[in-house]
Amino acid sequence: MIVNFIGLCVTNLYKALKCIFQGKISLKNTVYQASVIGYDSLPIALTISMVAGAVLSLQISQQFTLTGADSYIGGLISLAITREMAPIFASLAIGARAGTAMAAEVGNMAVTEQIDALKVLKVDPIGYLLVPRLLAGVIMVPLVTIIAEFIGIIGGMFVANNTVALHPYMYIKSVWLYSNTYDIKSSLVKAAVFGVLIPLICVTHGLQTKGGAREVGISTTKAAIWTAVAIPVFDLLLSWMFFA
């Protein structure tokens, strides 16, 4: 079952890449999907990132200040958010918000025979449904991640200032000293990979839906679970490549 689904995902990804390289791209659908994936998911992604930065700052600020290491607070929070927390949390938020909507929409099309109608009209379902979402995911998830990184670091700064009276200048100086472009680049690569995984998994589950409304709900649930598992697994692999 698992191997079969992974094979379907690989096959659909190959077909989607083939359509992209052949120039079979609907700009209108891509822009619309970008708004759904990026703009509609932005509030929840930024909220989660800010809370993550604030909680991390709350946990370490007092201990670091007691040991005289308060100059490292901003740098540690920046590294944690940039390398791991922002890409994962933003992608999970997008998967929960936009990914499940994709699975439900495509699944509903499958059970109401709209997919079969596309095939009768000689419209490739992969090119029509997956390609715009795939391109939108690759573009928008890294953009949301960059904003989430900034918001998470700012959230940590406010908490550090209010809990241990750490001056914002010292915090920002620490962020500047311990952050580098490699961390940002690695986070963007992670976000782009997650931007591929979310629509690929969710649309594939939607296309495999058969039956009625109950099966649409089951496919949506499976898409959410697969996305929530795939993102941390690929994050581990990518972190191993970048930092091991």
User: How many strand elements?
Assistant: 0
What class would the helix/strand composition place it in?
mainly alpha
How many strands, which pairing sense, and closed or not: the largest β-sheet? none
Strand content: under 5%
> What gyration radius follows from the Cα positions, in whole Å?
20 Å
Count of spatially separate domains: 1
Question: Total helix count?
Answer: 9
Low-pLDDT regions: none
| 3D shape | elongated
Please bin the fraction of helical residues. over 70%
Q: Quick check: average pLDDT?
A: 91
Following the backbone from N to C, one meets helices and strands in this order, namely: HHHHHHHHH
Q: Alpha-carbon distance between the termini?
A: 32 Å
Set down the secondary structure blueprint.
Layout: H1 2-21, H2 27-39, H3 42-66, H4 73-111, H5 114-120, H6 125-164, H7 168-178, H8 181-207, H9 213-243
Helix pairs in contact: 1-6, 1-8, 2-6, 3-4, 3-6, 4-6, 4-7, 4-8, 4-9, 6-7, 6-8, 8-9
General description of the model:
The chain has one domain. The model has no long low-confidence stretch (mean pLDDT 91). The longest helix is centred in the middle third of the chain and has 40 residues, at 125-164. Helix 4 packs parallel to helix 8 (181-207). The chain has 244 residues and is an all-alpha fold. It is built from 9 helices and no strands. The protein starts with a helix and ends with a helix.
For this entry, give a set of tags.
mainly alpha, 244 residues, 9 helices
Short description:
The chain has nine helices and no strands. By secondary structure, the chain is mainly alpha-helical.
